[in-house]
Specification:
It comes from Aegilops tauschii subsp. strangulata. With about 280 residues, the protein is an all-alpha fold. It has 2 domains: about 120 residues, no CATH class; about 160 residues, no CATH class. It is built from 12 helices and no strands. It starts with a helix and ends with a helix. About 35% of the residues are buried. The N terminus is likely disordered.
Length: about 280
Amino acid sequence: MIMEMHKLNTLCTYYPLLSCGLNLRMSLRNQFEMEEVKGEFIDGCHVLLSVASLTSSSLFDNLLKSIRQYGTINLLSALTSEAVKSVLDNQNEEETWGSDALDILLETWNVILGEACADKSPMSADGALAASNLFKIIVESHLKAAADSAFEDSDDAEYFHVSVSKRDEQLALYALIARAAADTTIPFLEQLFSERFARLSQRDVENDPTRTLEELYWLLLITSHVLTDSGEGETLLIPEALQAGFTNVVEVAQHPVVTLSWVYNKFFKAMSRPRN
């Protein structure tokens, strides 16, 4: 009990700074103050990671509920969404606080979801909703960034100028968040891909498909990480979260993972056909 109170007190100490971080660019005018608060905000993110590492996922979420109307996972979701937006909005600037914060916050998700998986217990309904909303923001933000980079010169485009290992590590962490709410995120990915595939199929000579192709490329990347775990050189593995996340689906043909895979298979077949 004493340990739980200590964790709560620590979290409460940094809560105002973390909340301030949600509107960092709007709430501060002085550059010196902004840099100072950014550093403190990063410290607050480290606190979240430390607390998550020392407690169970359910206790982590309940810590904030004792003083607020929402759980700690909701705060983590809001902070992560802002960090994603900051990173993508400042790709051409010498801005590192968003990237540093995002790395820490994604690692916090990794710890929380790893705990939930180890306990063989699903995330709470509130936690799953927070994960679902966050994943949708992540995907929509990256799709916008991908589309905006479509016509940039290769030497200037920063969006895809990330090491493959760094990119895959980030996508793998995004995938963990998606699997925590697979019942909503898998259909969401299918909807997005189907819309863009249809747009690509219906294009005419006056509509440049470059933006759509960039979006499809990113959707292919994130979906491949969501649907499979790396087998370290062996056969790719189907994540347990996806196997257990649709227990109410009886017909294999109606399984969301199957229908999503069919959409991608249809896309690859269409792309492999010879064009006139």
